Amino acid sequence: MKVYFATHATSKDNEAGIASGWKDVELSELGIQQAKELEERFKDIKIDLICCSDLKRAVDTVKIAFGDKYP
After folding, report:
1. Which of 1, 15, 59, 60 is the 20 to 30 A CA-CA neighbour of 31?
2. The whole model's pTM is what?
3. How many CB atoms lie within 10 A of CB 10?
4. Can you tell me the distance from the alpha carbon of 4 to that of 68, in angstroms, rounded to the nearest whole number?
5. Residue 32 is assigned to a structural domain of this protein
């Protein structure tokens, strides 16, 4: 078994230099582009499961990158 880790894409707070912690912030335009690029980086890797935080920036990163392909 292999485990891959990726952080959420850039959020609006990241760009503003704010440490968000548990604050639920959205991805920035850069973050949306990064999430799209994440799919390309993982396109040839068999993935059985994706787990992420319930915070919007993490969930949106996964949704943009992988859509509904994984549970």
Report:
1. 1
2. 0.85
3. 19
4. 19
5. yes
Collect all residues with Cβ–Cβ distance below 8 Å to 44 and sequence separation of at least 6: none
Query: 3-state DSSP call for residue 27?
Result: strand
Tokens 């992420």 belong to residue: 52
Give residue 11's domain range. Answer: 1-17+25-52
Give the orientation angle of helix 56-66 with respect to helix 29-41, to 10 degrees. 50
Amino acid at 19: A
41 is known to lie in a ligand binding site: no
What are the tens digits of pLDDT across the range 28-54?
Answer: 999 999 999 998 999 898 888 899 999
Number of domains forming the structure of the chain: 1
